[in-house]
Amino acid sequence: MEKVTFVDPETKEELQFFVVEETQINGIRYLFVTEEEDGDCDAYILKEIAAEEEDSVYEMVEDDTELAAVGKIFAELIEDADIEYEK
């Protein structure tokens, strides 16, 4: 499973995530990532906001409407996942 590094813009802390699935909607790339490779754990949806040669810049999707819409697509793509939303 592919791993990505996310740098928190406020703390500059590096976090490692596992990419479970990715999709593109209206030309915007989204990643569904988890903290652990297997088992129950927190998951996040990241949105690509900039792309350079080999690096991309992502931010966590926080808008409730966008999160629900993209989350629904990922729920369909990841058939065996039991996805629950928290605000």
Residues in β-strands, percent: 35-45%
Distance between the termini: 27 Å
Radius of gyration: 13 Å
Number of helices: 1
Please write the string of helix (H) and strand (E) elements.
Answer: EEEEEH
Weakly predicted, low-confidence segments: none
How many distinct folded domains?
1
Structural class: alpha+beta
Q: Number of DSSP strands?
A: 5
Structure description:
The protein is an alpha+beta fold. The protein has one domain. Strands 1-2-3-4-5 form a five-stranded antiparallel beta sheet, covered by helices on one side. Strand 3 and strand 4 form a beta hairpin.
Task: Give structural attributes.
single chain; 87 residues; alpha+beta; 5-stranded antiparallel sheet; 1 helix; 44% strand
Quick description:
The protein has one helix and five strands.
List the helices and strands and how they pair.
Layout: E1 3-7, E2 14-25, E3 28-34, E4 43-51, E5 56-60, H1 64-77
Antiparallel strand pairs: 1-2, 2-3, 3-4, 4-5
